[in-house]
Write a structure and sequence with these properties.
By secondary structure, the protein is α+β, with helices and mostly antiparallel strands. The protein folds into two domains: about 15-40 and about 130-295, Up-down Bundle (Multidrug efflux transporter AcrB transmembrane fold); about 45-125, 2-Layer Sandwich (Alpha-Beta Plaits). The chain is about 60% helix and about 10% strand. It has ten helices and six strands; from the N terminus they run H-E-H-E-H-E-E-H-E-H-H-E-H-H-H-H. The protein has helices at about 15-35, 40-45, 60-70, 100-110, 125-155, 160-185, 190-220, 225-235, 235-255, 265-295; strands at about 40, 45-55, 75-80, 85-90, 115-125, 185. A four-stranded antiparallel beta sheet has the order 3-4-2-5. Strands 1-6 form a two-stranded parallel sheet. A hairpin with a 5-residue loop joins strand 3 (about 75-80) and strand 4. The radius of gyration is 28 Å and the shape is elongated.
Length: about 325
């Protein structure tokens, strides 16, 4: 299905504008991660996290005071606007156990005896378990990236294409990770799974464009590389918009109607879907073009074939014969 059957967007001509946007996006993420850092959830830090809903409105100071009086200082309390629901996160304490969460709940009930509360969720993770989960999350990311690199190395004979795809993938993951740092949202196992999903979606979208580029390089041998890449991206634009639009519609439903439990997970997918679609067009393919331009030191007139396609043939120009005096008959 073609939504834009005759588009002729000059994506390569806009590449420096795209690079500037990506630079601002990644720069903000890096600065936030370097200054604020990431706020890790209970999965990686250990401790207790609970979500409670009061029947009537209650002041956040009352909730904080009740938790501190039960022997747990500096609790991180988040109030969900428009509701009487609070998320209470308590850093791991020495000697803390699963029973500690019961003590905290009893302290809350004692502080507001005339305001019944409902326990929406409650979790306790010990220090050893949290460290093990953190190591496994890091290994999951490393092995996923390694698998993608190996796949791209076999898929495209030119390693630069694989490197460009990995850069686009890291662009999306880092931008989403930075968003959570800027917004002060917690990064837990659910968010790690969202980052891995974003990486897989991003590289898949990039490979679709790369495949079309490779096909056209084997067929069109008399056009500059920028025109070949532009035609490839314009031809796959409808597919990109349809696929991304459907995915975005689903994750937007999760974001608005999925509830507080998966709200941050849906936020990561919404942002990651948009930035992943953008990077396939604005980062991966332009990086391939820039490498070809700088490697040849001039604008290429016949793109080199990728993946076993025949190389472009250039016919030599015949030299003119020197003019001589004609002998009369």
């Amino acid at each position: 299905m073609q939504i834009f059957p005759k588009t002729h967007f000059d994506f390569i001509g806009w590449r420096w504008k795209f690079f500037t946007i990506s630079g601002i996006l990644l720069g903000g993420s890096i600065i936030s991660l370097a200054t604020k850092g990431a706020k890790y959830g209970i999965d990686f830090t250990g401790g207790t996290v609970m979500q409670v809903t009061f029947k009537n409105p209650v002041d956040i100071g009352t909730v904080r005071s009740a938790i501190e009086k039960s022997g747990f200082p500096d609790p991180a309390i988040q109030h969900y606007s428009g509701t009487n629901t609070y998320s209470i996160r308590i850093q791991p304490q020495k000697g803390e156990s699963a029973q500690s969460s019961e003590d905290q709940l009893n302290a809350l009930k004692t502080a507001v005896p005339d305001n019944p509360l409902t326990i929406d969720s409650k979790s306790y993770i010990g220090p050893a378990v949290s460290q093990d989960l953190f190591k496994k999350a890091v290994l999951a990311i490393v092995f996923s990236l390694l698998g993608i690199i190996i796949y791209l190395a076999f898929r495209f004979s030119n390693p630069i294409w694989g490197i460009a795809g990995i850069i686009a993938l890291l662009h999306d993951v880092l931008a989403t990770y930075g968003l959570f740092s800027i917004a002060g949202r917690e990064v837990d196992l659910l968010i790690i799974s969202a980052l891995l999903t974003i990486g897989g979606y991003s590289i898949h979208d990039t490979i679709v464009i790369f495949d079309r580029m490779r096909e056209k390089m084997g067929v069109i041998r008399n056009l500059p590389l920028d025109q070949v890449i532009n035609e490839s991206m314009n031809e796959t634009l409808s597919r990109t918009i349809i696929t991304s639009g459907i995915v975005l519609a689903v994750v937007l439903v999760l974001f608005f109607f999925g509830g507080q439990v998966i709200h941050d997970f849906a936020l990561a997918l919404v942002f990651g879907t948009m930035v992943g679609t953008y990077s396939s067009i604005a980062v991966a393919a332009p990086l391939v073009y820039e490498w070809h331009v700088h490697s040849s030191k001039k604008r290429p007139q016949a793109p080199a074939a990728i993946g076993g396609a025949a190389k472009a043939s250039i016919k030599p120009v015949a030299k003119p014969k020197p003019a001589g005096n004609k002998k009369g008959r």
